[in-house]
Amino acid sequence: MYDWLIVGAGFAGSVLAERLARERDERVLIIDRRQHVGGNAFDLLNDDGLLIHRYGPHIFHTNSTAVFEYLSRFTEWRPYEHRVLAEVDGQRVAIPINLDTVNRLYNLDLTPESFKKWLAARAELITEIRTSEDVVLSTVGRELYEKFFRGYTRKQWGLDPSQLDKSVTARIPTRFDHDDRYFTDSYQAMPKYGYTPMFEAMLDHRNITVSVGTDYKSLGSRKTAGRTIFTGPIDAYFDYRHGSLPYRSLRFEHVSREVEWHQPVAVMNYPQTEEFTRVTEYKHITGQVHPHTALTYEYPEPQGDPYYPIPNPENQALFKRYERLALAERNVRFVGRLATYRYYNMDQVVGQALAMFRRIEESIPRKNGRTSCNFRL
Ligand code: FAD
Ligand code: UDP
User: Fold this and answer.
1) Rounded distance, CA 107 to CA 261, Å?
2) 225 and 319, same structural domain?
3) 344 is a domain residue
4) Are residues 166 and 209 in the same domain?
5) 325 plus 227 within the same structural domain
6) How many domains does the chain have?
7) Which of 44, 93, 208, 349 is deepest in the core (most CB within 10 A)?
8) Tell me: the pLDDT tens digits for 295-353?
9) Ligand 2 test: best mutation among 149, 272, 342, most atoms within 8 Å of CB?
10) What is the largest CA-CA distance in the chain?
11) Which pLDDT tens digit goes with each residue over 204-263?
12) Is the same domain home to 149 and 20?
């Protein structure tokens, strides 16, 4: 008998397994229905020996010192600042939109000051910013919205930006200077040898048993542990009692090419053309040197593995009904992107899991009577 059953060996499940086993000396069984640990951050070497991400590009960035220090116990890092180009009107320009994007696209010579005025003349006055359309129209106006956001968002989500919560496109800022980095977080780095070895280091503890290829449902009513942490889709846990929560899926096409380079940056976005949203070339991210290259094309799909919770008021209301069931569930805790239906980045999931560990520490006495030493967020 284990003290804890953890369902899902992604960031949420692995962080909690590590904390419970190492800090509280409790016995943990962590299962995943996939054949590997790491959840969506799983990476592996392809036939050329190039590191690729099976579930699309995972770029680590955070402003949280606590999260970065915590993960640094399990990996060294390779500094990496992410840059993305969008193919718009036949040109390759920086996204997030910055001064150079507009100068290039319109053949202008704006300065940061005159760029602000240029944008202000185009931005639409929207009194209450509610949707992903409102966010973009109110900052860059309709023309840039159409070029960069409308098509990409419709393709990615199967919904118009006006049907999505503002938080979705608010992830992409507008820059008034030449900064062409995708993120500006204080920590931007990739696990030096990949995510999978980092997860293996987290789970390498005598108190942790890992069982991959094991679905929670296959355990049936067999009681394997006193307490459960569930990190899969919350609607599946409750057998879709209130109906299915919409999650957006993707099909990943992994391609090897016998050329050294395919594109100038790690990710190219296609907001106007193509059926795929973006193409990733991993060598830019990993720094590997090789005569061949490895790419991933992402094709959004309505059905398939649940990758993205879809943020809008209707789906949030349905999630709240499941959340009420979750709160009433004795001895089961729900954490992570799928179980809390939040469009979270990796660092936010690590933060959420560390916060849950702190709540466990506050509410369940340690069996060994040791005092706690938590990571404070
Ligand atoms: P997951 O990684 O999804 O892990 C949940 C696990 O539970 C899965 O492995 C699943 O197989 C398992 N599971 C589900 N149901 C069951 C069951 N019934 N029985 C057993 N196991 C089950 N974040 C960033 O910070 N930077 C990025 O660049 C970035 N890029 C992304 C790109 C894509 C295409 C996607 C989809 C996500 C990206 N993310 C990125 C987000 C990142 O993947 C998540 O924040 C993080 O992986 C969530 O961790 P998690 O543990 O909550 O969920
Ligand atoms: N987006 C867009 N055009 C782009 C990049 C992003 O319209 O060139 C919108 C789109 O709705 C996307 C969202 O902004 O889903 C968030 O983008 P991000 O790159 O953060 O998406 P993720 O990496 O999570 O898929």
Assistant:
1) 28
2) yes
3) yes
4) no
5) yes
6) 2
7) 349
8) 999 999 999 999 999 999 999 999 999 999 999 999 999 999 999 999 999 999 999 99
9) 149
10) 69
11) 999 999 999 999 999 987 778 889 999 999 999 999 999 999 999 999 999 999 999 999
12) no
- Token pair 């799909």 in the structure block, residue: 301
Residue 185 lies in a domain: no
Q: Please tell me whether residues 329 and 214 are part of one structural domain.
A: yes
Atom of ligand 2 nearest to the CA of 151: 7
Cα→Cα distances 279→21, 131, 253, 374, Å: 39, 27, 9, 40
CATH number for the domain including 236?
Answer: 3.40.50.720
Asked whether the beta carbons of 336 and 10 are under 8 A apart, the reply is yes
Selection from 94, 88, 77, 81 nearest residue 284 by Cα: 81
User: Which tokens go with 321?
Assistant: 């009904």
What's the mean pLDDT in 12-35? Answer: 98
Cβ partners under 8 Å of residue 146, min gap 6: none
Q: How far is the CA of 70 from the centre of ligand 2 (A)?
A: 28
Query: How far apart are the CA of 311 and the centre of ligand 2, in A?
Result: 13
Domain limits for position 165:
84-170
Query: Are 147 and 92 part of one and the same domain?
Result: yes
pLDDT of residue 367: 78
